[in-house]
Amino acid sequence: MNHLNTVLDFYIGLSPNIKSSLFITFLLIVVVLIVNHKLKDHDATKTPKGIVLIFEILIDGMNKFTEDIMGKTWKSYAAYVLTITLFIFLSNISGLFGLYPPTANVAITVTLGIMTFAMIHYSGFQTNGVKNYLKTFIEPSPIMLPLNVVGEIVIPFSLGLRLFGNILSGAIIMALVYGALEASGILFLAPFVAPVLHAVFDLFFGLIQTLVFVILTMVFISSKMPEEEIMQEE
Amino acid sequence: MNVLQSLQLILEVAYNPDFMKGMAMIGAGIAVFTGFGTGIGQGYAAGKGAEAIGRQPEAASKIRTNTIIMAAVAETTGIYGFVVSLIMIFVVALG
User: Fold this and answer.
1) Is A203 on the interface with B (CB under 8 A)?
2) Which of A14, A115, B15, B75 is the most buried (most CB within 10 A)?
């Protein structure tokens, strides 16, 4: 009982963004488990229906999208890319459901950036070999080493802060407009203003920032690979 | 007023918390001037995108997607300025 209380206190103390990120993660886990369960009894010769169909379209589209950008090495990265796409997109549009967008918290976006950073260097070491990959840091000359290292360290912050700033700016502008409506006593206009604001700042910017994050992730990962790995087979 | 007195006045002003808050607010205003460069960059991306569609109307959908993404990448510097100004307002001035 005491442990439960500790856990509850810990949960209550979290910031609202982290709470909604927990909620979204939990939702995604449940949905993916349901899809997994349905896929096990699924007959491959029949046309898929319902949630299985949706996920089939998603995965198919993501495979094509990754292949367009990353060339022939797409296969091992499509799963990672689809995962972060789902999480970031759901987070960005979660303002529509009355949650605080988790991506308006710098801790979460920079965490996503650090995940991508780890992915970039893992795939760099894996595809080039340790020695060749370390050699790319002293090219074109050893004097460039500090610049190259700084250029690498900046990547997670640039990715994370871009997402954070965009989503936060949308949230702040909406809060300002609602505050102005309330202060001037015309709050009854809010139902007419809200759809436009949410369509622009939650859906449109959310989708675009998701795309930008994902595309930059893929571009950074494939930029660390040797040339012949990326080239498409004709 | 001699030099020493005026120096003392400057020091007093410099350590005044209200003055610091006001300067932080002005700094926040200056920081969002990064939007200047962002506007130029986004306008350039949009202009080139429109040009490309004019030259190759059959590739319009692909060019449109790319233009939007490039505009969002160009937006980054403006967002950095925005983050800095937010820090100025909510951490330095109001914190």
Assistant:
1) no
2) B75
